[in-house]
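BUG: 3D viewer hangs when loading the predicted structure for this chain

Environment: internal workstation, default settings.
Expected: structure renders.
Actual: progress bar stalls at 90%.

Input used:
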Amino acid sequence: MVVGHVEWGSQLFGAKNCHDGEYDSYLCYWVVLGVPVYLSFRQCIHVIEHETLKHHERADQIMCFAREHLDQRDLRGHVPVSGVVIPLKPSWSARLRVLQLGMLWAGFTLAVCAVVATFALMQAARALKADDVTMLIVLWAGFAYFAVGLPIYLLTRKPTKRQAGIRQAVANLLGPYSDVADWNVPLIRRVSASFGLADADAETLLEAAERSFAAKDFETALLCSRMALGLMDPTEKRQWADRAEAIADDALEKLNEK
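Structure tokens produced before the viewer hung:
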């Protein structure tokens, strides 16, 4: 029985930017006593599942990236999947994704109850009461939300065209199909050091991006611009974010021409 189900621990919720066994998700801690009674957001992460790695065309490149750059101390808690896990910065869009999933589960519950209650009332040999009508309105509203919300949720699991281009460039250079701008700062610094840019700040990375663009190395230009964006604090973003995004857009345009 669902009512008797008791569970606690780490779970992944709200997958987005899904591609070939890779996805962004939120690592959460939850407690279930029949129904979920507690949920805590722990960390946003990018997951490359172990089963995917067995047949992944970039498996060797991804495993090399993991050995050279990833540090398990960057993860905040147990990850309930086997594979490569990349720590990301906190994301309100990812948290909203988790809440959207929770609302869909609530809508699904109401949808099932709507069908059951409607069938039961049809079988009952009595006129509908005001409370029955109110209950049916609430339940069928949940059904409508689920019917509309589920396709939207599934359609938005994939990355946008721009994000797909950024992630493909990162995958070509490093292995993971992920946006470097979303990575946590220690990881970005380790990766930038491997490109000869140890202890580089956002401005230095932007200059490196512009040099790479001028040399027609558009993937590296894109990578450096995204690393710069990922390192920017709020003050720097007001000053340089538009510059970083412009370099990324120009690099994407050149890559799409190939």
